[in-house]
TrEMBL record, chains A, B:
One Pfam entry name: Cu_amine_oxid
Top-rank EC class of the record's enzyme: oxidoreductase
Chain ranges of the Copper amine oxidase catalytic domain: 206-272, 305-560
Post-translational modification: Topaquinone (TPQ) is generated by copper-dependent autoxidation of a specific tyrosyl residue.
Family: Belongs to the copper/topaquinone oxidase family.
Name recorded for this polypeptide: Amine oxidase
EC number(s) stated in the UniProt entry for this protein: 1.4.3.-
Amino acid sequence: MATVQLFRLLWFVALKPCVSTLSLEHPLDPLSPKEINRIRSQKKMPSSNGYHQAGGPSLPWWSFEVVQRHMRSLWIYWSWLPPPLTFEELFQASLLTQQYPQFIDSILKRGLNISEVSCLPLPVGWFGEVVMRRQVKITCFYRNGTINIYVRPINGITVALDLELMNVAYYAGRFSSPMPKVEGTEYHDTPVKSGPTFPNTTSSKLSIQGNVIEWGIWKFHLGFNPRAGVIISTASICDEKEKRYRRVLYRGHVSETLVPCMDPTTDWYFRTLWIRVNLVLEKPQIAFSPSLIVQPTPSLSMPGLLPRAICLFERYSGDVAWRHTEIGVPGKVIRRGEPEVSLVARMIATVGNYDYILDWDFKQSGSSTVKPSSIRTQLGLTGVLEMKATPYTSMNQAKEDIYGTFVAENTVAVNHDHYVTYYLDLDVDGEANSFMKSTLETRRATIFPHPPSPRRSYWTAKNKVLEREADARIRLGSEPAELSVVNINKKTNVGNPVGYRLVTVQPAYSLLSGDDPPQIRVAYTKYQVCVTAYNKSERWAGGFYADRSHGDDGLAVWTRSYWMKALQ
Amino acid sequence: MATVQLFRLLWFVALKPCVSTLSLEHPLDPLSPKEINRIRSQKKMPSSNGYHQAGGPSLPWWSFEVVQRHMRSLWIYWSWLPPPLTFEELFQASLLTQQYPQFIDSILKRGLNISEVSCLPLPVGWFGEVVMRRQVKITCFYRNGTINIYVRPINGITVALDLELMNVAYYAGRFSSPMPKVEGTEYHDTPVKSGPTFPNTTSSKLSIQGNVIEWGIWKFHLGFNPRAGVIISTASICDEKEKRYRRVLYRGHVSETLVPCMDPTTDWYFRTLWIRVNLVLEKPQIAFSPSLIVQPTPSLSMPGLLPRAICLFERYSGDVAWRHTEIGVPGKVIRRGEPEVSLVARMIATVGNYDYILDWDFKQSGSSTVKPSSIRTQLGLTGVLEMKATPYTSMNQAKEDIYGTFVAENTVAVNHDHYVTYYLDLDVDGEANSFMKSTLETRRATIFPHPPSPRRSYWTAKNKVLEREADARIRLGSEPAELSVVNINKKTNVGNPVGYRLVTVQPAYSLLSGDDPPQIRVAYTKYQVCVTAYNKSERWAGGFYADRSHGDDGLAVWTRSYWMKALQ
């Protein structure tokens, strides 16, 4: 079906220069509930009590997670490693803890009401074990009649659950601190504030055909995967002159999210949380009013549609896209400009106390000659702090390291990092892309003999296409440099390679020592940018089984020594 | 006059807890045109031909720039250094060039029409001269019937003008490159696009009494100074519990703006532009629709009101201020949140080809227990590139350093930096503030004897109040650290000092060598954060006479060795 619509740019009202042929089905569409159920029935998924059959790593666990579809064909992987935790298992683990007699006894001894206790199972990571069983550790909180669970952590109880046998593998009730006070850390059960009503101007320039979105010069496929969340594929811009779409991004998504805590004590050392969006996907329409909501999402553990899971809206940031005032033309004051408007695809993942707001922000190009097109990934982190109980009521009493910040009496918010890593497979004007580092180097200016320059120095950009993956691991800020992905085979008419610049903020890098098990698993966090030659299997930065990885898979391994392909 | 109004927070509709006593006159208000004219008549300002009297640095130049009012009393400074350039002088200089016979001759020889030439005078900086005269250098462009001046720079002509004698001090017509092509660098004379119509909800919570703004929990004085532009003073937040305003920022404004070019050749080496907003203030309402415009601004060189020079509007960014979804309370799914709304005070300064958008962004605190209040300075840079003509038509022909990037045939956009430095005098809960650096240090975790931790490392924050100005010069990213301004005498109820964190991006630092004259003048640009003990005269980072400074005034000098005051 050919779509012809009016192009929105005001200064030349014309037929849209790039014409798309679209159908409602697309090879990159997510699996439908029907398709998932068909695979499930064909492959005889073990029932939940199938976990009782045996333990140990020799059992070939079947995991829905590894079902992937590639160009309308189905690929089924079998795995000898524990599959990710399912929502049903976590729910069972939580229930089992609250019914465990010793746990109930501990709660009663503290003078608490067991019906006001909420429990949260956490992945256990890998700390050198040879035999790994599917385990979770349980952390519990006291609601005390409020809706604010995380503010009153119950400390001094260690519960480890075996998910294969579905029983308590280890229990220890140790000490009991006073319950944390809520002062300063409580949120109230107040009504949701309605957001401002954005003007719904999307109808004029937004087109949605199945999962393919067209907006201004941009066209992309909006997909979903239960591990990555939102997936942007085949993002392209319309070249007005050449009247064709030019590819920018083949595929982009969140590759890995982890939150290592900086507390080495018994109940905290293992908290290096890996986040799987399939467990936590949240409807993003709370707290703002999107102009449009699309893309029902199948959940792989419980096939079905989650309505309103991704939203698309036009963002009017109040910023200026481009402007100029000119007083240099005699007798005139000329003012030109336009507001910044972008298209946002948003997903929100709630992970226990935290809420992640994950945006893909497409900046429209008013005129490609004045300001370039861009894609921005924006991460918002909100929710409730991660806290633990402490016997101290204030900072002054604590003599040793408390591993965090006092936020209320008997309450410490524990130090931690958040690492969200994006997978970006750029295809700028084709597949043969290269990674270019432009280092800004100081030069002496005294060498100019005639006329001698009164300046002593200046900087110049030294462009270098990096040829080895090991060189393309970047610690941002360690030297003044600009980073780009370029297509060195495609030149502009003045001889510059076509490319997109990677504009970064200053994200954190890991301060853990290299022999610390969490660091062994995610060694790549010592760098903020890593570039690898394309390899279909290299999508998950922490490895395919990130949480229980031994560090033998993942970005750090892939970038050790290989020469990059896709070079001139 | 006491103001009582309804407080906006929805969860407790109550009388506004902090009551203000306001009058329409405020000691920090800008001078009115009437006041400026009164000073002008009292002090016998030299007329424009007064510049002809004599040359050299011995003449006591009277400068309007140095008129400052401190708490309703007037301070007049006399200066033995050249005062800043005035708009009238620059206009005269431009006119004089275009009437200069040799210049006309050069233009005709190039086959150009003199009536299509626009000229821009530039400050000359300081390059070791012992005797300094008030000079500008002129750079000219060929409009060729368009409105886009900067795209066709005319090269090979050097013109220096003496502003004291108002004559051409030096003229050289040298070589002539082909005129740059416009392809790829041209902007079109298209109508201004109207911005989206933001919902005008300001009436409910914005109060303007003279120059004092109240909005949500924030209250501040909005002033103007022809050197700094917008000045935010006495910004305070309402403490709902204590029913009083608590001071955050005594005064904040842009302290210095400079743009050093990285081209050491004859017509470019001196371009290290200092920007004075009084020459360039621009109406910000172009390209977006503010909900409210206030604060007519007196221009000191031509006393009078510039209407709509600053605008105030509520920004609905589309972001989420705070949200949380809770599924851990049995039988409930609880969703809470609110959209991000902030108040923006915006000024736009157009400086030749560049347009600077300078925002002060006040984030409202929905609830001070959940998310803290904040002030953000945001800088937007737009306009047209700074270009020069080159004999080459493309990158492949250039064998030597071209000091920039090819953007069109015969056109190079010259490498340069933009440094915008802010002066922030914080008064967090009073004047006795300190600068705290919290360094994140890696610790070994093996020392825990019982039970031994499976972790090997963690990081912890080591807080240190810096006592010497020399230590409080920070190169961001050189070590993992958080920066705060705290009041160590005011503690929270759990013993933490009250404070505000400085949340930075990764701004540039200067790559020029220390013996380069522009770097001697602005040595502070080797750091991105400098903290000094309060001194009334230390407001302008590049020194009071930044453009002609010898490096003996300014932030780099003030932070060399002094101990900070305001310590416990």
